[in-house]
Amino acid sequence: MLTGLLKVKYPLIQGGMAHIATGKFAAKISNAGALGVIAAGAMKPDQLEQEIFECKKLTDAPFGVNIMLLSPYKDELIDIVIKHKVSVVTTGAGNPGVYIDKLKTVGSLVIPVIPSVAFARRVEKAGADAVIAEGTEAGGHIGELTTMALIPQVVEAVKIPVIAAGGIASGKQVVAAFALGACGIQVGTCLLVSEECPIHQNYKDILIKAKDTDTVVTGRISGIPVRIFKNKLAKTYITLEKEGKTKEELEYFTLGALAKAVHEGDVDNGSVMMGQVAGMLKEIKPAKEIIAELFASARSELQSLKI
User: Fold this and answer.
1) The pTM is what?
2) What CA–CA distances, in Å, run from 271 to 84, 210, 228?
């Protein structure tokens, strides 16, 4: 069970959501019994260090740091988490193999986010402690395989623990993740509507109003698929993509778009990242309540199954 590995009450990791998962937010999630994670993706090294200080000030529970390996500061960010002996390091957008031995010298667990069996095998061989297998239902940067298809294949392929992510916001989905062979879950979208989440109220309102078909994937043609709310930005991006704009031109078009949504509340021209489960979210609640209800509901659903 993931609880023993992470030393937490619930087998749940909070997703590393750039511009959203601050030290304060991660501390709230850790204090709620899960593993809070600081998202270093958009941070410079000094910013990450300040967020780690803030998190340590607010919780004595374990917490993690998510590092996007496309970051130009990745080496410095790794040095910061080593300096502070962060309990867990999750990674995305690359293979953390060259950093794993260094991280393990200070006792950090290394848990990469992976989109395929091949990548899971690669990071296992490199020494990863577990993997987060994320289905295409998730918000933000995604792969192609669905959670339902991905998890059992990864579980079959590797010996290290597998954590399920993508499309999880209810007790039923928690039970499904475990039935597929996962030892725990990672969630992001359902925590965006927590009282403690630092996104703009406009962003939360969009999540609460969202329907099942209100997300779209941009970047499929250019090879950088991202699931976001189907707004003006998304529609324009897809049009530009079909017109043959280069990856660089598309990146320039979305420069600062996530921050615009998160901090300014511009839900028309901002990148409102959310998973397909957004249509299931109906109210804003404390994070502790959201997490506790997920597992209470899962236990209830498990007892009611008739197979």
Assistant:
1) 0.93
2) 32, 15, 6
